[in-house]
Amino acid sequence: MDYYVKFAWQLLLLKPGIRIRFKLTMLRSIGLKQAGYLLLLSALLLVGCSVKAPMTTQGALDGPERQQAAQLEMVLKGLDRRVDASEAKMLARDAISYAYSLSERYDLVWPPLWHNTLVNVGLKERGLCHQWADDMLAHMRKADYKSFDFHLGVSKMGSFMEHNTLVVSAKGAGFAHGVVLDPWRDSGTLYFAKIKDDSEYSWSQREE
Description:
5-stranded antiparallel sheet
């Protein structure tokens, strides 16, 4: 059992963005029997830990998601007195709903590090934190918001614990005054907070 725990831990600590595919040489190195156990475990977890997006009515957010959107809207409006209120409302709702849309596209499973592992070994196509950030950025820029700028943020760049996110700021205010929009850490449920208030990560701007 210790062998499997160590092997799983090594997979979980893989740097985001590194894709590893099981080839015959690797299967031989761990043994076909052990590889079978790992694949069986993956299948069981895929069934038991799938993330389901909340139901919506005619494209509108329901229940807690609507309340979450209202909270994010207030944070966005508070970034600058020149922020257009209608844009803040639209962005808040769009960010939350699109995060759930991506969770379905990625066929997301919980917890996030386990999903990372499945991507890294080739059992899932996407869902690493930098892919969340890149996909969110591309989607948000399509709307051509006049009140906001979008940036990519990175924490502990180059380490095994590297993490990436989308950051939104008031137009011209700069990255350091932005709000983190991170759907990865809570498996599709959008986490948001001002950069200075994010106690889990210390962020710097990432080049696109």
